[in-house]
Amino acid sequence: MAGQVKKIPTRKCTGCQEMKSKREMLRVLRTPEGEIVVDATGRKNGRGAYLCRSLDCLGKALKNKGLERSLKCAIPEETYESLKKEIESIEER
Q: Virtual CA dihedral for 16, 55, 23, 15, nearest 10 degrees?
């Protein structure tokens, strides 16, 4: 039996609409309570949407309302600000 090739899961960025590996993306989650958080583990319960780890994609997602469509809810401005800070801290590493 030949070696098994492991499938790499891909997801579409809500900002740039590109398909990328799930590992290199940031998962934004709407919890069952309606709270919007960043899911670092990728395993929390709730409706998820994916973003590239760049401020450009966050800006595009804000402009085209990609996150709001994916999470099926309105997203307050404060949430976008916290996402921006989170991405900035990731980019600095």
A: -20
Question: Six-digit token pair at 89?
Answer: 């801290």
Question: What is the spatial distance between Cα 38 and Cα 44, in angstroms, rounded to a whole number?
Answer: 10
Does the pLDDT of residue 91 top 80, yes or no?
no
Q: Please, what sign has the CA dihedral across residues 14, 15, 20, 22? A: negative
Closest CA to 29 of 77, 71, 79, 58: 71
Q: Render pLDDT for 3-45 as a digit per residue (tens, 0 to 9).
A: 788 899 999 999 999 999 999 999 999 999 999 999 988 899 9
In whole angstroms, give the CA distance from residue 49 to residue 58.
12
Specify the 3-state DSSP secondary structure of 60: helix
